[in-house]
Design brief:
single chain, alpha/beta, Rossmann fold, eight-stranded mixed sheet, 8 strands, globular, hydrolase activity, Alpha/beta fold hydrolase
Length: about 280
Amino acid sequence: MTATLAAGREELVDGARTVVHTLGDPGGAPLLALHGLRGSHHGLAPLASHLAGYRVVVPDLPGFGASPPFTDRRHDVDGYARWAAALLASLGPGTVLLGHSFGSVVAAAVCAAAATTPRALVLVNPIAEPASAAGGVTGAGTAATALLHSGAARLGLDGVLRSRLLADAATLSMTTTRDPALRRWITAEHRAHFGTYATTESLLECFHAAGSGSVRPWAPRITVPTLLLAGARDRVAPPAGQHALAAAFGDARLVLLPRTGHLVHYEAPAWAAREIRGFLPR
């Protein structure tokens, strides 16, 4: 359940200081992986460790992990897409682009812009519709979380947003595994890394972008082969919307992983890696 990444190195990517980690075969085919909201490179390490034959490049998105926030733009989809496109271009032609959750929205925006396109796109737990538009339990949970973030920021309660209680609540809402050891490990991961954002301001900008954005508007403009890996029990990006999302692409394959929620990269990394390796063009 653990994975060891090479020590991160700081790079200047489109003017933004970015800490980048690399895992896998140094001579392998490049794959750029983008984590989701309130994540860091740690979350994608288990999946990356199973992608034999690939040089997996996992940056901390600016404002998260060890990467400082942007100084010249907002922490929204457009800001991150411009940054990610520059990093993708630096890795050279033939690079595969992968995004999880909010990272899936950023990755889709990069591909839709068509200035720099990967050879294939992999979206893990893709956001099929804006969380703010979801109904039922998902919509209510999103609204409550938005209220908590905005209220804590307005009152200067940064400690609340970095608290173990909030990390545990996220784990409870996103994890479906019944394996006690795996649940304990995911809980420990979230407690260690869920609060490693740079500033409340950058977190809120990204939070609002994540809550109002989705892959759907970008899908019709994406021309590269695309794999959608979704959890059949995902409460953040429910499977009901994944089939409609897949149909919006010109060339996409959807795989629903049974008994898996919004943390495919934690709960089923070996399975997800097999799907990815089987999909990617040789």
